[in-house]
Amino acid sequence: MAYDKKELEKKALIAIEKHKLMFMEHIVAFLPCGKTTFYDLELNQSDTIKKAVEEMRVSKKTKMLSNWIDSETPSLQIAAMKMISEEHEAHRLNGTRQEIKHDGGIKSTLIEWKPAKRESES
What we know:
Layout: H1 5-19, H2 24-29, H3 35-40, H4 47-70, H5 74-84, H6 87-94
Helix pairs in contact: 1-4, 4-5, 5-6
């Protein structure tokens, strides 16, 4: 069965919007063609489909982050802070940054060699 690439692309865009799809694999399930046809027609490389998927992901991430910030649940607020914080702030929240201090100098120690006493000398 021959498929019209443009028609499948339109159906994919409708499915993305209707079912809030965010992964290429999920799009295939809503199309009248199989996975092989989807990839053979290079619909996975369609800029229009990629853009629609990316816009869906960004909108969902933004909505979720806003909900976390507005939440009264401390764990969600901390998760949101980790997402929006600067690198040093995130390390501070996680307790993951380790500071190593070095004075930059080279210290040498003089070791004095003393020969061992022989048993015959004692």
